[in-house]
Design a protein that fits this description.
Layout: E1 3-7, H1 12-23, E2 27-32, E3 51-54, H2 60-70, E4 74-77, H3 84-89, H4 91-112, E5 117-123, H5 146-165, E6 168-174, E7 177-178, H6 187-199, E8 206-208, E9 214-215, E10 218-219, H7 220-230, E11 239-241, E12 247-248, H8 249-258, E13 264-267, E14 274-277, E15 283-287, H9 305-311, H10 319-339
Parallel strand pairs: 1-2, 1-4, 2-3, 4-5, 5-6, 6-11, 7-10, 8-15
Antiparallel strand pairs: 9-12, 13-14, 14-15
Helix pairs in contact: 1-7, 2-4, 4-5, 6-8, 6-10
């Protein structure tokens, strides 16, 4: 039986990864920050199967302790301040967690158990102002947010520890991956939650920012399997995990509404653009400039050829199924809440 330590275990990716590792017979340890009220988040349903350790990515002593307790064979660093918009409001906290926190975790591994295998959750946001389409492992980085910059540090420090100290350390450059467990502050979940509430008559309309941003969207469940595969190889390496498809936020909105039998028709341009229900003429989507980024990432589309070839990875959940799952889940959650 292997031991695995997951940081950020209560989040979307952490919960799917915990489920996967439990299915494979791992002893799973998860790092949690101490709060006044315990919040198991997305692992509430499996909390009795997980060994929780209180620690913090900004406190290397607590991470060393976590390594001593878990004696982890595999460490998955999924903890992050992961909301891009917040990274402009809290750039130093983002750097402490997403950049220096990675170094703290690597030092804890090097101190306690240097044979442990380490996975770092890198991100397509590191490509930012893209220098190549599609983006792959050799594409130059150009981050456009404090989040992207901090993640780039985490990515390079992982590579440095691999090359300097011989650690089995690798990074997965994951493109946008969503699910029913995504937080409602993220645009995809914000959309599907609003679509459900609009359908049920509980919300009037949805407000969004840049509708022309293009993203490469996959499902988190597929992507955590790629994380596991990376740590099963003979030698550590870095991999892009993506679908090689890109869609605008506008397309995501249209697809989500179609799942509740609403067809959106667009009128106007720029900040004056609105989306109307074709059947009723009611305005359901509006643009709000406050949701625009200070520096926009216009297009992300990843080339997963290396992961598909070397890891044997492939995605199983299509874009259409991803959106359908999210809308269906939010309809069920909202209906259940209203029924109470």
């Amino acid at each position: 039986m292997k031991n695995a330590l997951i940081t950020g275990i209560t989040g979307q990716d952490g919960s799917y990864l915990a489920e996967l590792l439990l299915e494979k017979g791992y002893q799973v340890y998860g790092i949690m920050r101490r709060k006044s009220v315990v919040d198991y988040g997305n692992v509430e349903h499996i909390k009795d199967k997980i060994n929780f350790i209180y620690a913090d990515m900004t406190d290397v002593i607590s991470l060393i302790n976590a390594m001593k307790i878990s004696q982890a064979d595999e460490v998955y660093n999924l903890a992050a301040q992961s909301f891009v918009a917040t990274s402009w409001e809290q750039p130093l906290a983002t750097a402490d967690i997403d950049a220096l926190g990675v170094t703290n975790m690597l030092e804890a591994i090097r101190t306690v158990k240097p044979t442990a295998r380490f996975y770092q959750a890198s991100t397509s946001e590191m490509f930012g102002l893209v220098q190549e389409i599609p983006q792959k492992e050799t594409t130059p980085f150009y981050p456009r947010s404090p989040y992207g910059v901090a993640k780039l540090y985490g990515h390079w420090i992982t590579k440095n520890y691999r090359e300097s100290f011989g650690l089995y350390a690798c990074s997965g450059i994951l493109f946008n991956h969503e699910s029913e467990r995504r937080g409602k502050e993220f645009v995809t979940r914000k959309i599907t939650d609003a679509v459900a509430k609009i359908k049920l008559g509980l919300q009037d309309h949805l407000e969004l920012g840049n509708m022309d941003s293009k993203r490469d969207w996959g499902h988190s469940k597929d992507y955590v399997y790629a994380m596991w595969l990376m740590l099963q190889q003979d030698t550590p390496d870095d991999y892009v995990i993506a679908t090689n498809e890109t869609r605008t936020v506008r397309e995501f909105v249209e697809t989500a509404f179609k799942h509740v039998d609403i067809t959106i028709e667009w009128q106007g341009i720029g900040v004056d653009e609105i989306g109307k229900d074709k059947a009723t003429g009611k305005t359901l989507v509006k643009i709000n400039p406050k949701f625009f980024r200070p520096a926009e990432v216009d297009i992300l589309i990843g080339d997963p050829t290396k992961a598909e070839t070397k890891l044997g990875w492939k995605r199983n959940i299509s874009f259409a199924e991803l959106v359908e799952r999210m809308v269906k889940n939010d309809l069920e959650l909202t209906s259940a809440k209203e029924a109470k």
